Amino acid sequence: MSRRQAVRKAVFPVAGLGTRFLPATKSIPKEMLPIVDKPLIQYAVEEALEAGIDTLIFVTSRKKHAISDHFDTAFELETRLADAGKLELLARITEIVPEGVARVHVTQPEALGLGHAVLCAESVVGDEPFAIVLADDMIRSQGRGALAQMVDVHDQTGSSVIGVEEIPLEMTGSYGIVGVKPFAEKLQEIHTIVEKPAPEDAPSRLGVVGRYVLSPHVFSCLRDVQAGAGGEIQLTDGIAAMLKSHQVLACPFSGVRYDCGSRYGFIKATIDYALEHPGLRDDIIDHMLGILAQYLPEREP
Ligand code: G1P
Question: N or C: which end of the chain has fewer CB within 10 A?
């Protein structure tokens, strides 16, 4: 029988090496790269807060002070902005995390994989359902955020919930892929999950995106997981073991996802968010019209 406990804690694994963005990520974590004027991690935190999360757990490596600095008080900067009467700017840095929301930083001593990073948060999460948000998967929603949609499903069913999206068959090697059977309108029950299979081995074209609401049972499963795809301890393998005893649902959220771990996805997100920004929109459109006028003739046959 599933328990219906509220989801209050979210884990943000931010200890990856970010090699696809080198040299930009040589000294800062990839989650600190900005889309327009906010770092990826801040968008992820905002999505979690909207879903009702009140405890943010960052799993960092030793070098990642930038993440904790970003969410901490910046006394000197705040004083200068206040003295200069720049209140709008001041609000931008003081209202990132509302009062009453706890921040916890956990160190992952070695980059042994996503499953290992999540396991590092076990003692802080304890025995309650929790969310995982991968900040480099950015999801822009018109209405309720993707994680909030998934927490709603968890609240209704008591089951673990994984965000999924249909992906092109040739991309299965970049995602966790789920095999499913019907469950309810828009939802499916996961019976298989495989990390980064070749297209011919993929159980479907439903790829896992970086949003999870999981039973704490996943921790005991992760403890038994051996290094898998890429020689890493994979979260997917822990979830696969959990399927034997716990129901896990696949949730196709409404919203647009950007793979900001890739340069192309990152640039698309930058353009789309800039177009939504009232102070930038017209200038960006003018610039793009100029670019199109320059490049379109080159592409015409
Ligand atoms: C991770 C997960 C993978 C998931 C993906 C979503 O992979 O291991 O199952 O589909 O995030 O972004 P990574 O992109 O960290 O290699």
Answer: C
